[in-house]
Amino acid sequence: MNVKLEKETGSRTDVGRAYLRPLITSHLTAIYTITDAITILAALYVSTLLAGTGPHDDTITLAYSTGTLLFVLIASRHGLYRSWRVTPVLSELRQVVSSWGITSAFLSLGALMGGYTQDLADMPALALWLVLAPVALSLQRIVVRHAFRAVRMAGRNYRVAAVVGNTASAAQVVDTINRSSWMGLRLLGVFDDRLTPREEQGVSGRPLGTFEELLAAAHRSEVDVIYLALPLRAVERIRSQMMQLMDTTASVYLVPDFLEFGLMESQIAYLGDIPTLTVSESPFNGVEGWTKQVSDVLLAFVILLLIALPMLVIAIGIKLTSPGPVIFRQRRYGLNGKPIEVWKFRSMSVAEDGQNTFRQATRNDARVTPFGAFLRRTSLDELPQFINVLQGSMSIVGPRPHPVALNESFRSLIPGYMLRHKVKPGITGWAQINGWRGETDTLEKMAKRIEFDIEYVRRWSLFFDLKIIFLTVFRVLKDRHAY
Fold first, then answer.
1. What is the DSSP string of 37-53?
2. In this structure, are residues 369 and 376 in contact, taking their beta carbons and an 8 Å threshold?
């Protein structure tokens, strides 16, 4: 990575004082609080217009006042009134919706305890308001984000950032700051006590100065944000530098060397009050798990209604063209590595269970029947797996389930292989729409498929599932790797 780190002409004091200071956090809090209250009021006004209810009804006024106060308190508790400049917008929107959801729950409980349930039942405007408000609040946050982004890209409202340590993590921090002008961070430079260039480890070029020089600049309030990107083994040095930086007004962040352990997608979790770092975990805990389960069942039920007649035609076609059962059942690994039975339309003249031995289908495989070749090429042989989804053993989207014998042959050869089993296997998946489908006759091909499977586990969201389903229609059904 080529980033200029040499010392510039002129004193660092002059450079630091030339930077425009960011808006004071309290001002941002006031702005967000006022705009949230106005947005909630606007959503209520639109709701009354749509429902034909007078906007000055006492019950509506009480609901607005109580709801706004509750939302501000809950949003403050969720950190919505802090700076979100370096955080993805989806994270902020999730907190907005979550805060309003809790607000709605408290309002409903208050109405029940206060005897307002009949009033609420007679006012559809309030029910409409509970739905429109989070949408309006989310749109407002997006607009504010874009306004601040435009200001920062114009060279205003930015913060001066510095990086300590010339490491691979430091290189990523530098690259992210330089590529993301919308964050409003201006890089002062990389500081390291070893001033010799170390291109093989991190940022190329000579560090701007030593830690002592950065500390002096921080004492002069010339630096707003400092990222400590030292190796995890340098515990004593990290502790010492953190203690010294606590005597300044700069915001200090520790950048753990996740690259060393391959933990780039890890998150902070808590064991009681003890913070921990997730190494491997299912994304479907709590609400996410229910969301995934409900969406799977509803979609599978609707799809089965639509494909019932085509499935009947396929079943008749299999019976008329080759001897044997219509449905082929095979043992494969499911959630948490537990064996499940996966259903497919039979497309071969044999029905290997795949538990002890398994031979993948190859091009022009003699075991594939003529009608079966058509089914495999169009992925119609997978349709019975929607029944597996209703049974709860599979999802519509997830890593494709492998036969037990194939699993056992690769799990010890590919690091992290079993992480794909932290979720239910799917009818379609992220690896399949990226072209890693069909025969995996080499270790490299299987490793690439597993790479995309693990990426799916770490990136999962409902929108990601919908994207994969949409792309499946255009990519997988036209894929020629299936035979």
1. HHHHHHHHHHHHHHHT-
2. no
Q: Tell me the domain boundaries of the chain.
A: 12-22+158-264, 25-153, 287-478
Which residues partner with 368 through β-bridges? Answer: 348
The CB-based long-range contact list for 318-325 (8 Å cut-off, 24+ gap) reads 318/345, 318/346, 318/371, 318/372, 321/369, 321/370, 321/371, 322/346, 322/349, 322/369, 322/371, 322/372, 324/349, 324/351, 325/351
Contacts of 174 (CB under 8 A, 6+ apart): 1, 3, 163, 187, 190, 203
CB 328 within 8 A of CB 343: yes
Q: 0.70 exceeded by the pTM? A: no
* Answer CATH for 12-22+158-264 from 3.30.300.30, 3.40.50.720, 3.30.70.2740, 3.90.550.10: 3.40.50.720
Please name the helix (run of DSSP H) or strand (run of DSSP E) that holds residue 7, with its range, or none. Answer: none
For the chain, 483 residues long, give each residue's pLDDT as a single digit of tens. Answer: 444 444 443 333 333 333 334 444 456 677 778 888 899 988 888 888 887 765 556 677 777 888 888 888 888 877 787 766 667 778 788 888 888 988 888 887 777 776 655 555 556 778 888 889 999 999 998 888 888 777 777 767 778 899 998 888 888 888 888 887 777 788 888 898 875 555 445 555 567 788 999 999 999 888 889 999 888 788 888 899 999 998 888 888 888 776 555 555 566 666 666 767 676 677 777 667 788 888 899 999 999 999 999 999 999 999 898 888 899 888 888 888 888 999 999 888 765 554 555 556 556 666 788 888 888 888 888 899 999 999 999 999 999 988 887 788 888 888 888 888 888 999 999 998 888 876 666 888 888 999 999 889 888 888 888 899 988 887 755 655 554
